[in-house]
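User: Structure please.
Assistant: Input sequence and predicted structure:
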Amino acid sequence: MVICVIDGQGGKIGSVIIARLKERLREGVEVIALGTNSLATQNMMKARANKGASGENAIVTTVRKADIIIGTINILMANSVLGEFTPKMAQAVSESEAMKYILPVTQSHVFVVGAASLSIPQMVEALVDHVEKGIERCAK
């Protein structure tokens, strides 16, 4: 099972997600940190990702192999994250057959109707719960 966690800028949300995944998931689940830049990747690696890579080509290439992709809603939008998330990256994520777990957090002019008003730690906890259940379903 390969999980790609994608984040940009400082990688703070991705780091929190990876830390929680590593605490909760069984051995044998590979968590790959994909940063739009090296700082984001470096910080996610500190959260104990198994592997990490940075930049457009790394993201475009790696999401093809993913079973699960995790990130904020920005990873579905071209030119988001103040331009760090390129159209090629958004297309690769969108076209990937991996299951996508998305947090409704964005700096863009997007409002997700129906999204619960949760703090980021609460959203991450709910996300990890859903990922864990999804992995359990796949294992059966």
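The longest strand covers residues 2-7.
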